[in-house]
Design brief:
Elements (H helix, E strand, L loop, with lengths): L1 H6 L7 H4 L12 H4 L4 H8 L5 E4 L6 H11 L3 E6 L5 H16 L4 E6 L6 H5 L2 H6 L2 E7 L3 H4 L2 H4 L3 E4 L5 H15 L7 H11 L3 H18 L6 H7 L2 H5 L7 H13 L3 H13 L4 H16 L5 H16 L5 H13 L5 H15 L15 H5 L39 H27 L14
Helix pairs in contact: 11-12, 11-13, 12-13, 12-14, 16-17, 16-18, 17-20, 18-19, 18-20, 19-20
């Protein structure tokens, strides 16, 4: 029996594992981190290892980079998955690190999906990172600003990994094909279809290549055509390939249908994406974006309905919760449209980014202490509630020397039409107050309540 087992072929590694880079030079993608003079390249060259959080979507090389660091720095490598591990596993990893240090070796502790650890579990790493017992390399697909506690973030550099580009995926495809199926030819468009299905995910591309190779071998197909790729891969993958009806093209079509006030088209694209396997809450977040970008104050209910749709989906799940998303999409399409808030915000952000840091005018400063009052903080501030119609006509709320920019220009649709009327009336009151001040020889906004109230 032993002789029989000796003749069997050893189990073959999955292509994604077999193709894992063995050196930093073999890594495809992440040139902004690994290119000459870039942060991680410098770390490898200098031999100075530091704790870090690698943030990026699946299949972009987070685990690979951690393993390469262990090899490059001749360190022990301990991997934990936050999905399956707890404090007991952390303690065992630390014990292994202490044993390694006793042998004169440093340890890299890799924690996959680190955001899934709760605060107490994340805190458990802190003393060992501070002592230098381990170098922590955390991997996450979620924004670490929200999912990783601040104490751990302050001790680790955060590096953002990007999805692989079409050219990078094509390079990986050719490298993998030469290893896995050199006898199999692919028409140019077939390769593009396959890399499009991968959507920036290297692991996914390699898995798809294996599927197509198996299907082509079974069917006796060579060369592989685009049509065969479509047949070999699942229906859902075909929905979002970037070589044809791309995922982001469809979300763009949904957004533009809402903006164009076509509820049927909005519903069509929403259903297309749901049917194709798009994450419903991703669509919900995009609806929220549409509510603030394309409707804004023309109908503030749009934002509330969009947020409620997301909450409803979170509570009900699929398929019941998807009806709330459909309701939101139809409401947004039918609502009055305005991008006035969106334009005003962008204009203000651009101005502030390029402007100097102007001081807050004295009369607008709070004066909670006697010293501040003696310095004039809050002096001559006009308390709007004590003014006629609750409005301090002619008052200035901008820094000195800065004119009123007029960024927000409400449209004559929906609620913003009423807002436009009100602002026009207030501007007329300002004009009259300024004219009166000019006739009386004093500037507008120089008398009134001066008790330092905010």
């Amino acid at each position: 029996m032993a002789d029989l087992f000796d003749t069997l072929d050893p189990p073959r590694l999955p292509l994604a594992e077999a193709m894992r880079p063995r050196t930093i030079v073999e890594v495809i993608g992440q040139k902004h981190l690994l290119g000459p003079g870039k942060p991680l390249a410098l770390a490898f060259q200098s031999g100075k290892l530091h704790s870090m959080i690698l943030w990026g979507p699946p299949g972009v090389g987070k685990t690979t980079l951690a393993r390469l660091m262990a090899s490059a720095f001749d360190a022990e490598f301990i991997a934990l998955s936050a999905v399956f591990s707890g404090v007991k596993d952390i303690r065992e990893a630390i014990a292994q690190a202490e044993a390694a240090r006793a042998r004169g070796r440093h340890t890299i502790l890799f924690v996959d999906e680190v955001h899934r650890f709760n605060k107490a579990q994340q805190d458990a790493f802190l003393p060992y990172v501070e002592q230098g017992l381990v170098t922590l390399v955390g991997a996450t697909t979620e924004n670490p600003s929200f999912e990783v506690n601040s104490a751990l973030l302050s001790r680790a550099a955060v590096y953002v990994l990007q999805p692989l580009s079409a050219d990078e995926l094509a390079e990986l495809f050719e490298r993998a094909r030469a290893v896995a199926c050199p006898e199999l030819a692919f028409e140019g468009d077939a390769r593009d279809r396959l890399t499009g299905f991968a959507d920036g995910d290297a692991r996914r591309l390699l898995n798809l290549l294996e599927q197509v190779h198996t299907a082509a071998t079974t069917a006796g197909v060579n060369p592989v055509t685009p049509a065969f790729v479509d047949e070999a891969l699942s229906r859902n993958l075909r929905r979002f390939d970037k070589g044809g009806e791309a995922f982001y093209d469809q979300i763009s079509a949904l957004h533009k249908s809402v903006r164009g006030s076509d509820p049927d088209a909005a519903l069509y694209w929403l259903c297309r994406m749901l049917d194709g396997g798009a994450e419903p809450l991703y669509l919900g977040r995009r609806l929220v974006r549409m509510a603030v970008e394309d409707i804004g104050l023309a109908d503030p209910r749009a934002l509330e309905i969009s947020l409620n749709a997301c909450t409803t989906y979170e509570r009900l799940g699929s398929p019941e919760g998807e009806l709330a998303l459909a309701q939101a999409a139809i409401f947004l399409a039918c609502a009055a449209k305005s991008n006035a808030v969106y334009k005003a915000y962008n204009a203000a952000r651009k101005f502030v980014a390029n402007d100097v840091s102007r001081p807050v005018p004295i009369h607008l400063r709070n004066a909670p202490t006697k010293l501040m009052k003696n310095l004039g903080y809050g002096h001559a501030y006009r308390y709007a509630h004590d003014e006629p119609d609750g409005y301090a006509a002619g008052e200035n709320y901008f820094p000195e020397g800065m004119g009123k920019p007029g960024w927000y220009e409400p449209v004559a649709r929906g609620l913003e039409a009423k807002i436009a009327e009100k602002l026009a009336r207030l501007r007329e009151l300002d004009r009259l107050a300024e004219a009166h001040a000019a006739r009386s020889g004093q500037g507008a906004g120089v008398s009134g309540k001066s008790d330092g109230s905010q």
